[in-house]
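Need BZIP domain-containing protein's 3D structure for a figure. Predict it.
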Amino acid sequence: RILANRQSAARSKERKIKYTGELERKVQTLQTEATTLSAQLTLLQRDTSGLTTENRELKLRLQSMEEQAKLRDALNDALREEVQRLKIAAGQAPNMNGSQFNGGLQQIPSYFSQQHQRQQQQQHQQQMAYLGGHQAQRHHPNHHQSPSNGGQSLSGLSLDDSMDFI
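Structure prediction for BZIP domain-containing protein:
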């Protein structure tokens, strides 16, 4: 009976050592997994932060492009009106209201070109600030003189400047 008790105690001790060993291996495996998951979490948080920043920048860029499109459309409308006015002045197109000149349209391109230049400069500065110097700056002349309209161009901009809106 004493021998049976000793054998039973030895088996119990063996099971306990085996169980403890298994628990230690599980702890080691879980610690390794926790370290791996922690590193993955850090990477995902960094990626999320980067994507959030990129999303914000893209939204600003989209807003800027929408504003450019509005300016381009307004510029195109003003240029169409100026072309029509010049055609009427040159006698190439019939006048819609019966007078030889449409005085209101003569002032639109000059006013619009000044306003447009200010908006374009502000927009260019915003874009350069946004790009943070990642894009090379391009310089476009702001005026091309034309003797037919008192030294101002029809739009107040060069062809290159107009192309920025297309």
